[in-house]
Specification:
The protein has helices at 2-18, 41-45, 55-60, and strands spanning 25-29, 34-37, 50-54, 64-65. By secondary structure, the chain is α+β, with helices and mostly antiparallel strands.
Length: 71
């Protein structure tokens, strides 16, 4: 039982430390400067001025999070 517990801890540590961090993608409105999570109803309605970019990039461009979804 103790060996199984140790094995699980080792595997859990390896999985969490070796996996690359995925970028969080958002819909960024280039006109308003707001960004939305991809599942936000406003992101789905935005078709003209929106681009799909990384959340860090949206913040770097001066973007602010949506008040509905929080970006």
């Amino acid at each position: 039982m103790k060996k199984l517990f140790i094995l699980i801890l080792i595997l859990a540590f390896n999985v969490t430390t070796s996996m690359p961090v995925l970028a969080e993608m958002v819909m960024y409105n280039t006109k308003t400067g707001k960004y939305h999570s991809l599942t936000c109803k406003w992101a789905k309605k935005c078709t003209v001025n929106c681009i799909k970019i990384d959340k860090k990039e949206a913040k770097k461009r001066g973007g602010v999070p949506c008040k509905v979804c929080g970006g």
